[in-house]
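Record 1 of the preview.
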Amino acid sequence: MTTIEQASATTAAPAHTTDEQAAPRRRGLVFWIVRYLPAELVGTAAMVIAGLVVTTWTDAPALVALAALVGEIIGFYAVLAITIYLEQSQVAATRRRAIARTAMLLVAEFGAAELLDTLLVRPAALMLGVWLIPDPVWGMLAGKIAADIIFYAIAAGAFTLTARAGLRDGSRRRTTDAGVGAEQAVTP
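->
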């Protein structure tokens, strides 16, 4: 914020509040795109390749969906593991600590979403897509998009919780024993 914007923001509180509320949404959208798009691209490519490879042996929707699911999981998490490791290597004291924090954050951010997604939502969505749409590529992509909507609703909520808890930046917050609500930073 420039000095002029800062001065006008202090005199005109309603305009400042509107600008402040609009900026996080724009920044938030860019953040989510930058964070997840590379993993999505690699995961989608791995999904299509794995699904198409299996269609050379069978046209059973369940097997095509299973291969696509495994391919996507491997591609998606390979990219995210590297991304989170690079974030954590900046705040962790050692490489071992960065690896441990990466594993913890992958589970915290994606654990619940991945369990629901892998065991229920994605296989059903992929199988339904391959069954309803004659072309297996378009069927897999349609199923993937439907499953991704549910997955990211859960994962984004988990990411927000880990960020608010201070798990991402290397500091964790806890209340004091007095229960007053004062917070202290704890170095992990």
